[in-house]
Amino acid sequence: MERHAHTQAAVNRLARAAGHVNAVKKMVEEGRDCSEVLIQLAAVRAELTNVGKLIFKDHLSHCVMDAAKKGEEGVLEKLNAAVDRLL
C-alpha cells in the first residue's frame, strides 16, 4: 500500500475521532445533557472533516497528479464524484 505525506496524521486523527465517538456514546448511555452531546457531536464532525481534508490533499498531490501524468481518463470525474460524496 502506498503511503502519502499525511497518512500517519490521518491515522492518528481517526484514532482520536474513534475515541471521541466512544466517549459521546457513553454520554448518551449515561443520559447526559443533550446540549453537551450535540456539542461533542459537532466536535467529532469537525475532526472527521479535518481528516477528509488531509486525505483530499494527498489524493490531489499523489493519486490525481499521477493519473493525469499517465493520461488516465476519468480522473477528474472520479475526483468530482469523491468530492460530491465528501461534501
Task: Walk me through the structure.
The protein is 82% helix and 0% strand. It has 87 residues and is an all-alpha fold. The longest helix is centred in the middle third of the chain and has 36 residues, at 34-69.
Core attributes:
87 residues; mainly alpha; Methane Monooxygenase Hydroxylase, Chain G, domain 1; 3 helices; 82% helix
Annotate the secondary structure layout.
Blueprint: H1 7-29, H2 34-69, H3 75-86
Helix pairs in contact: 1-2, 2-3
Summarize the structure.
By secondary structure, this protein is mostly helical. It contains three helices and no strands.
CATH architecture annotation name: Up-down Bundle
Q: Strand fraction band?
A: under 5%
Task: State the separation between the terminal residues, measured CA to CA.
Answer: 26 Å
CATH topology: Methane Monooxygenase Hydroxylase, Chain G, domain 1
* Overall number of structural domains: 1
Any idea what the radius of gyration is?
A: 17 Å
What is the helix tally? 3
Mean pLDDT: 90
Tell me the structural class.
mainly alpha
Number of strands: 0
Low-pLDDT runs: none
What would you call the shape? elongated
